[in-house]
Design brief:
Structural class: mainly alpha
Distance between the termini: 61 Å
Number of strands: 0
Strand content: under 5%
Shape: elongated
């Protein structure tokens, strides 16, 4: 089936889809709670599977590999969906220079660029927690890490984002003055 999909064989692709669709839809529904969004994410995920199946080396399970691509498709879906951005909560910036600067003062694309500058694992934990609203136990289960590691990544993400927002604020202030 994997070799057939790598050769773009439609029957192999359909067989793969039929075999793994129920599990991937169940995973996505559990995480997203909206059938239409879940279906969109699953279909995007399978598109990625077909595009990247040639990179599957047979190490580990095919289902686990597909699940990873589904989780990435879900993260990308929410990354592009502006309304979830308002759910981002950073601790208050301690230093008074930035007290009037809020996430609402920044454009969505600017914030995404800042998140993209985080290390991959830290960015993923931040997205899952702050944007998608998952609890640390759920994140730990999804990513195969401990709850403590999830909390550490969130803390590291917040600290780094505070620094990056401060730099962004200073850059914008200098642009306004100059």
């Amino acid at each position: 089936m994997v070799q057939g999909c790598a050769k773009n064989d439609r029957r192999a692709q359909e067989a793969l889809y039929r075999k793994y669709f129920p599990k991937m839809m169940g995973l996505t529904m559990y995480l997203v709670k909206d059938r239409e969004k879940s279906l969109e994410i699953v279909n995007q995920g399978f598109l990625r599977v077909y595009q990247k199946i040639h990179t599957f080396r047979g190490e580990g399970s095919l289902e686990g590999w597909i699940k990873t691509l589904m989780l990435r498709a879900r993260a990308d879906y929410f990354k592009k969906d502006n309304k979830y951005l308002s759910a981002i909560i950073l601790d208050e910036v301690e230093d008074g220079r930035h007290e009037n600067t809020t996430m609402n003062d920044m454009y969505y694309q600017d914030i995404v660029k800042l998140i993209d500058r985080l290390p991959a694992a830290t960015a993923e934990v931040f997205r899952l927690y702050a944007i998608e609203g998952f609890k640390h136990a759920e994140i730990a289960e999804q990513l195969g890490i401990s709850v403590g590691t999830s909390k550490w990544h969130l803390s590291a993400a917040r600290q780094k984002l505070k620094e990056l927002i401060g730099l962004y604020y200073n850059k914008e202030t200098q642009r306004d003055v100059g």
